[in-house]
Write a structure and sequence with these properties.
Structural class: alpha/beta
Order of helices and strands: EEEHEHEHEHEEHEEEHEHEHEHEH
Shape: globular
Helix content: 25-40%
């Protein structure tokens, strides 16, 4: 499949695109052809990064796991919604952020200089922003704390509001989406996503690649997370069928989520001539 214009740089999704993980996010399997595609981009001097909507781990923890299964992803080439969220939080000057997430989420934000607190701490009662991320141990007390702050005027941000992601065990639901739903239902406020498909995420991607947003090749398996972001930002959406969406489902997408090209796996970037 050919494109009217070729990307000058690429962003790759992780789950369903470069890897399949288990539902506990503890074990990774590289998708065949992924390592070769990334190596081919390096050989041609074409910039690329990986960006996941998973927020459980900072890049310094997750990238070595990717390299362990053969993917040449350096720490500085891996980005998460926490990368975007931390940048936004610092720009907006939030004094204290209430985090509903794992310790890995807190570590990632604090590494960037964001002042964080957890539900139940004294600081939680004065937080001026709430950030919902990967939080499998969320309790009603946590949701209550977040609702209280949002109702009092705190900003409401989230790593992701996408309901599903692909794993080796099939489709798995995103904890942050479920938690967001509870907070939104109580408060009447919708969260501001920091991960894909937000404009904030595409802006960071283009900045890191050093190219214009319209020249970014967004490669992924999710119609909302990747293709909607590509279409909204004028980028180039390249869909894979190795994750949560098959060819029939891609063909049925509305224009605002329709990919510019569909391939079976990232390895087909070479065979289909999508890499210059």
């Amino acid at each position: 499949m050919t494109l009217d214009r070729r990307p000058k740089g690429f962003m790759f999704d992780l789950d369903g695109t470069l890897i399949l993980s288990d539902r506990k996010l503890g074990g990774y399997t590289a998708i065949p052809g992924a390592a070769e595609a990334l190596a081919a981009l390096d050989e041609r001097g074409i910039p690329w990064i990986a960006m996941t909507n998973g927020s459980a781990y900072p890049a310094s923890v997750q990238a070595p796991r990717l390299r362990a299964v053969g993917l040449p992803v350096a720490d500085e080439r891996l980005f998460t919604p926490n990368s975007v969220a931390g940048k936004v939080m610092l720009q907006r000057g939030y004094s204290r952020v209430l985090v509903l997430g794992t310790q890995g989420v807190v570590d990632a934000l604090e590494e960037m200089g964001v002042a964080c607190c957890l539900p139940g701490s004294p600081e939680a009662e004065i937080a001026d922003a709430v950030y919902v991320a990967w939080h499998p141990d969320c309790t009603m007390d946590h949701i209550h704390a977040a609702c209280s702050r949002v109702l009092d005027g705190a900003a409401f941000l989230t790593a992701s509001d996408v309901p599903y992601f692909a794993t080796k065990d099939g489709r798995s639901f995103g904890y942050s989406c479920a938690i967001n739903g509870a907070i939104s239902r109580v408060t009447g406020h919708e969260p501001e996503p920091c991960g894909k498909p937000s404009a904030l995420a595409l802006e960071l991607i283009a900045d890191e690649l050093g190219i214009a947003e319209q020249d970014v090749g967004v490669v992924g398996d999710d119609a909302v997370a990747e293709m909607q972001m590509a279409r909204a930002g004028g980028a180039i959406g390249i869909a894979v069928t190795s994750g949560s969406t098959d060819r029939a489902q891609w063909a049925a997408q509305p224009p605002e989520r329709a990919p510019h090209a569909v391939i079976d796996t990232v390895g087909d970037l070479l065979a289909d001539g999508l890499i210059g």
